[in-house]
Amino acid sequence: MLSIKVLKAGSASYFTSLSRYYFRPRKPGPGGPGFDDDDSDPFYPGWDGGFNPLDLIGEGAGTWQGRGAWRLGLMGTIEKPDYERVMAGLHPETKRPLVLNADSPNRTQGFDLAFSPPKSFDVLWTLASDEERRQLDDA
User: pTM value?
Assistant: First the structure.
């Protein structure tokens, strides 16, 4: 199944806030490393907001790709200020408008496409044996 969501103004800050949440350092607690036992203060005191996705096992930093990024001088790891400006339709360095409706609250910034199996497949897979799961994965 394909789900399509229109990304409007604020989507860039939403995605960067998710990155900050998932890549934040965690305080040690009773559950061992990575356990955060204080939901009211999820970040280390004095934490500067920086994170390095390369520190996470299995996660790599997002990188700029394609001719459009190259023409804007965007290369290497995606940085939050550049990402938010481009999503707002602004040049990442000069902040000049790249589109007619740059920085407009009604601007469509893009589309989020997510592929997922139907719920009935999820239920079937959850109840299946290991062998049946392998067969379902191969289907």
Answer: 0.56
